[in-house]
Amino acid sequence: MVEQARGAASPARYGFTDDRAEGLLCAAGWWTGGGPEQSSTDVLIALSRSADPDLALRGLDRIREADPEGWPALSAALCEDVGLRGRLIGVLGTSTALGDFLVGSPGEWRRLTRDECNEPGSFADELLTAVHAEDTEPLTGTVAEQALKTGYRGLLLEIAAADLGHVVEPKLDEPSYTEVTGRLTVLAEAALIAGLAVAHAELAGKDLDGTQLAVIAMGKCGGRELNYVSDVDVIFVGEGDLQLATRLASTMMRVVNNACFEVDAALRPEGKAGALVRTLDGHTAYYQKWARTWEFQALLKARAVTGDAELGARYIDMVDEVVWSAAERENFVNDVQQMRRRVEKHVPADLADRELKLGRGGLRDVEFAVQLLQLVHGRADTELRLRSTMDALRALGAGGYVGRDDAAELEKSYEFLRTVEHRLQLRRLRRTHLFPDASETAELRVLARAIGIRPERGRSEAAVLLADFRRCVQRIRRLHEKLFYRPLLQSVASVPSEALRLNTKQAAQRLTALGYAAPDGALQHIRALTAGVTRRASIQHALLPVILDLLADTPDPDGGLLAYRKVSEALEETPWYLRVLRDEGAVVERLTCLLGTSKLVPDLLMRAPEVLRLLGDPVQLAGRDPVEVANSLRATVRRQPGMKAAVAAARSLRRHEVLRVAAADLLGLLDVRAVCEALSSVWAAVLQSALAAAISQRHAELGRAPAKIAVIGMGRLGGAELGYGSDADVLFVCEADEGAEDGEAVRFASSVAEIVRKRLGEPSADPPLEVDADLRPEGRGGPLVRTLESYRAYYARWGEVWEAQALLRARYIAGDAELGKRFIEMVDATRYPEGGLDAARVREVRRMKARVQTERIPRGSDPTLNTKLGRGGLADVEWTVQLLQLRHAHEVPTLRTTSTPGALAALTEAGLLDPADAQALTETWLLATHVRNATMLVRGKAADQVPGSGRDLAAVARVMGHSDEEDPGEFLDYYRRTTRRAHAAVERVFFED
């Protein structure tokens, strides 16, 4: 209210919010008690236009206090000199660090007068003069560093003032983005030149004749696109005495580090572990033999800046030869993909939307994409061999590798983000790439005003900046679609594109660079999916750029694209299929992950497309209760009219559930025990439903059901530990109903069991539904079904130790529950023998294990990578657990469990197994089970052997949670290491007397 009453006489009219503003203005002589001095109106208007008027005014007041004698001259100049006024107030209202420099260096403001601003060409001379490089006694040590620091900071002030002045005084010229980055780069080069001069002065007593050193700028300095606050990446090349050359280089780095900015030589061969200075021949040999692809990306910007000019020129000639053949390297694609992932993973999730440099849609996305296209197409087109990101982007547009409009949009977005980055760094002259949070309105307002943004259409400066920032990021997020994939579609379209059309060779090169091993096949899939003028083709044309991009990050892009084509063709009559992909981005991301990783999923998806909808909702995908699933399956099958329809319904529902579980497994939403439980539950429900239908059929045929039947789960089914490719090991047991003979009961039950086995085992494209009864008494030669009493008599008289071992996993699964319960109670005496096992039977178990392991591992395979029978594999763990159960379960009831991990926990709790051994065995059992499942998902067929190399190994490693950046061989090492520890525990425990 007070401000409103004072109206025009209030400093608030000029944007000041500080209560001290009027006092500071009066002290400066620009304000009287009633309002502004007439001569100072232009100064007040200029202050009101600055990014932070209060900060600018406080900065001027601090200068006045620090240099009271020089203040009258400055005050008068501010009123009269438009250039000085704009530049000085622009700096003071934006940068606290440069304000501190002006306060601490009285008179430095004179640098900003209209006639005394330096041109970039004079930067090196000024800094050399500052360190007395041309005098007979040049400066050295801390004195030289301080002189260089002052000279550098003064020139940086001039660049910032020219960059900011137009915001305060519109009459001043606005330098372009490239002019600003170019000046900053020249200043950095000048600092390196001066630093090398100081190094020569400090080593003046050494014999430097014949010692040559060339300094090669890399990164943004090499591309002439430095920030206000950047590390300056360099590489050193030396000839002659390399020890002296190294001392020159390290001294120069120390001087410049202390005075100006950090000089970073980590891009040299072997990084920080490598020699600081190498000869030209040493560099050449390294790049030809050892360099990785990212090093060639870095070398795109290499430029000699100081030191021995002739040596620097020879180095650049060498670099040109090796860089432009990098795309032909065998590991080019993998290295490029790993670089992309590494960049994205460096950003914390909570900061990803604000990270200007490394976030999605950030500066590095543009730089990375431009460099990749340069490496791919620059081999043949020398016009693309440019160091600047902006220059290269323009050349890509002019050459037809990127649409001209796309290149212009990206250039505009890139320039905007770099300008935001510059203003953020100017504030305190600290390196930062973090955009303010949306809640920080005061920071956003100052940043917006520093860029020159003003309110518009009722929106504040902060709101305008936030909208512009988000628009730029979203535009760049479509970067790969725009730069890589859209031209691929245009290259195969029937109508030529006006903006861009790649020929077949160029399109194939681009697909190869993105990770596709068979680009010609990929182009055929693209043609097939986008052919015609139908609505389906139109949607595919919009989807494919995104899908190609996402598939490029999977272990098998080619297989994923083929699978996508097959699924799309199979579901082209499904009305919601393409609509879901078009409208739900999360579904597309997860689908491409599945298709590019697994051969099992596409086949299931074509016959169970409804699971696709679940990909958008992780809770629905992974959160279903196995009991609820089993109840639903049984209820659905019960409603079917006959055995054939019942089995078809059971198969369909099982397919749906296997696909749902597989998708959740591949996406990391279910752990291995939950996967096994879910698969076991659905298998049990299928058996229950098929048995009920078969009994119903035979009852209808005979008019009666003369027997009760129960199905006993054995092996992994009994332990609820089924994998994707597991058979269902079972025993069939029956009991005659009242009035029926045992023979009649057995015949009836056998016919029912045969119907179940035959119907479920019929050939199908789904994972097999094999019902295996080979664990029954007398094996395949014995009757398929026995009565309960027959089982009792057999086990009491003829049962062998391996049968007792097999019965450790016996569990009621289907049929008559009461009969199943009595069977389980009956076999307890066999599987949990009183007194345990005698020494002879223990030796028999050990001999059986040795024989199985020797005879059943395929010849020529690596036994350390066999998940079932290999060293430390599933058999090792399970036989060890089962031997301990046979020996102790009668006395220790907690060991009476069919679960392997459950038994290991019980053994530890009972003190029968060392906790470290139990942990090793549990860890390897879970690992081997997970790997076995992953191998089935990746290959589409069951296999006990871990893939030893290639895309299958990479896919399995990815499913197992290993980073894409890691060599898949590291996963094999991890697997062998884990199983080796378990095998050592087995050797101790299994063979312990």
From TrEMBL:
Look at the named UniProt entry and state the broad enzyme category this protein falls under. transferase
Q: Which GO terms describe its biological process?
A: regulation of glutamine family amino acid metabolic process
Entry keyword annotation includes Nucleotide-binding: yes
Protein EC:
2.7.7.89, 2.7.7.42
Q: Please list where the region (Adenylyl removase) is annotated.
A: 1-488
Required co-factors: Mg(2+)
Which positions fall inside the PII-uridylyltransferase/Glutamine-synthetase adenylyltransferase domain? 338-484, 847-989
Q: Name one GO cellular component term.
A: cytosol
Q: What is this protein called?
A: Bifunctional glutamine synthetase adenylyltransferase/adenylyl-removing enzyme
Q: Which organism is it from?
A: Amycolatopsis pithecellobii
- The Glutamate-ammonia ligase adenylyltransferase repeated domain, residue ranges: 89-314, 589-824
What GO molecular-function term can you cite, just one? [glutamine synthetase]-adenylyl-L-tyrosine phosphorylase activity
Source organism superkingdom: Bacteria
Which HAMAP family does the entry link to? GlnE
Q: What is the lineage of its organism?
A: Bacteria, Bacillati, Actinomycetota, Actinomycetes, Pseudonocardiales
What reaction is this protein's catalytic activity? [glutamine synthetase]-O(4)-(5'-adenylyl)-L-tyrosine + phosphate = [glutamine synthetase]-L-tyrosine + ADP; [glutamine synthetase]-L-tyrosine + ATP = [glutamine synthetase]-O(4)-(5'-adenylyl)-L-tyrosine + diphosphate
Adenylyl transferase as annotated region, ranges: 496-993
Q: Which UniProt keywords apply?
A: ATP-binding, Magnesium, Multifunctional enzyme, Nucleotide-binding, Nucleotidyltransferase, Transferase
Assigned protein family: Belongs to the GlnE family.
UniProt key word Nucleotide-binding: yes
Residue spans crossing the bilayer: none
